[in-house]
Amino acid sequence: EQLDDDSKKEYCGLQFDHTDDSKKALERQIADEEAAIADAKEGIKTLTEEISALEAGIIALDKSVAQATEQRKAENVEYKELMASDSAAKEVLGFAKNRLNKFYNPKLYKEAPKQELSAEDRIFANNGGTPPPTEAPGGIADTGIAALMQVSAHNQLSDDTAPAPPPATWGAYSNKSEENNGVVAMIDLLIKDLTKEMTEAEAEEKHVQEDYETLMQDSADKRTTDSKALEAKVSAKADMEAELLAHSEAHKGAVKELMATEEYIASLHAECDWLIQYFETRKTARSDEIESLKRAKEVLSGADYALIQTRARGNLRR
Predict the structure, then answer these.
(1) C-alpha–C-alpha distance, residues 273 and 275, integer Å
(2) What is the pLDDT of residue 77?
(3) What number is the average pLDDT over the span 9-14?
């Protein structure tokens, strides 16, 4: 029995040491997993906020690009309308100046270009036929100039009709050259102002277009950069969510294992505590019992144990 107790005590000691080490390791693992879970949750929260900010930034960027594009279109339409209007005005003024030169300064008058006949019309005319009539140019005052302008018919001048003579109160036409020169100079000034306005508008249009193209390029670069950053953060968030799941499962498993270990330790206490507590008492009792058995055996063998003790004391006194 003593050998069984010795073996049992050794077994209990080893099991207590082993399970205690396992319990401490599991407690450390649980603490580590809880810290990892907290870090993962914080990281996911941060990434979620950053992803939301990037998405909002991309939406705002796209909106600003759309607004800039609409504004650029409107500015370009306004520019084209201005150029068309000023070009038409310059043509009208040039036509008026040429008309005045026809009657007051013939040397500067420029004939209207002759109509080019088609090959069929030329053959027909060469054979004695009458060429087709020249179509009216149309436009402003039959000049062929098309513009969003309305001119009263009675103010239009034809190529074959000179301006109406001045009223009688104006006197003779002795100063008509000087008056004509003044009108032509005024027309030249208007044409110059229109040319200046068109030049400035063209320069402004070029500058604005360059700024718009730079803005579009910068916006495209930023959108590419933000899109890549968004993709990376979405991927990182997915990885972190996977890590969070793994740590959560590991934490759950460690907690379950710790509970099983604690249950096993409790069963060890139930099995070993009594033996460990009374091990020495049981060992001493067995020794005493063995000694008593030895004495009893000696008595049964005929030895006078008491006489032996008496003689031993006498010898000690001598």
Answers:
(1) 6
(2) 96
(3) 79
The structure tokens 């019992």 sit at 289
Q: Nearest Cα to 256, choosing from 30, 64, 6? A: 30
The stretch 176-196 carries a mean pLDDT of: 81
Block residue for tokens 């997915």: 238
Q: How far apart are CA 1 and CA 244, in angstroms?
A: 54
Going from the C-alpha of 240 to that of each of 41, 192, 216, 254, the distances in angstroms are 8, 71, 35, 20
pLDDT surpasses 60 at 95? yes
Range among 109-123, 148-162, 195-209 rated most confident: 195-209
Contacts of 108 (CB under 8 A, 6+ apart): 98, 101
- Which ranges of 138-278 does DSSP label H, i.e. alpha helix? 176-277
Taking the model in full, what pTM does it have? 0.58
Rounded CA-CA distance 99/179 in Å is 15
The share of the chain scoring above pLDDT 70, in percent, equals 64
- End-to-end CA distance of the chain: give it in Å, rounded: 44
> For residue 6, what are its two tokens?
């010795």
DSSP secondary structure of 92-111? HHHHHHHHHHHHH-GGG--P
Contact 23, 261 (CB under 8 A): yes
